[in-house]
Design brief:
Blueprint: E1 2-3, E2 6-7, E3 17-20, E4 25-28, E5 50-51, E6 65-68, E7 71-74, E8 83-86, E9 99-102
Antiparallel strand pairs: 1-2, 1-5, 3-4, 6-9, 7-8
The structure holds calcium ion.
Length: 127
């Protein structure tokens, strides 16, 4: 996991993020002065960038759908009641849809390109 390009470990208590295999989720606390226990502050107009990678079980059946949906919980400087929102992968459909990825049925094609200068051979000159 990365927060603004800074690596975060899967372990709890060592930085602002962790992975829970039991709950099948990651938790990332964002903002200035975020800790391993609480989130920090994001000023109006400020943004933050989160990225994570997962390894899919190799025994998973090709075509299996994997659902991913983010949940963001926050409170405001003037609104102390926590607010929780879900990510929405389809803003044209009512409600909040998770992002769906299907396990590949065929590995992606890999294209190899090779270029080289033709070898020059020392051949005897023809006479
Ligand atoms: Ca961590």
């Amino acid at each position: 996991m990365w927060v603004n390009s800074v690596n975060q470990t899967d372990l709890a208590g060592d930085d602002t993020a962790e992975h829970s295999a039991l709950e099948n989720k990651i938790t990332i606390r964002l903002g200035t002065l975020a800790t391993f226990l609480t989130g920090g502050t994001l000023l109006p107009g400020e943004s933050t960038f989160v990225r994570f990678r997962v390894i899919v079980n190799a025994a998973m059946t090709p075509g299996t759908a994997i659902y991913n949906q983010a949940s963001v919980s926050y409170s405001g400087a003037n609104v102390t009641e926590p607010i929780t929102e879900l990510s929405d992968s389809d803003t044209n459909a009512p409600g909040n849809q998770p992002h769906v990825v299907f396990v590949n049925t065929t590995p992606p094609a890999i294209q190899l390109t090779h270029s080289a200068t033709p070898a020059l051979h020392n051949r005897p000159a023809r006479t």
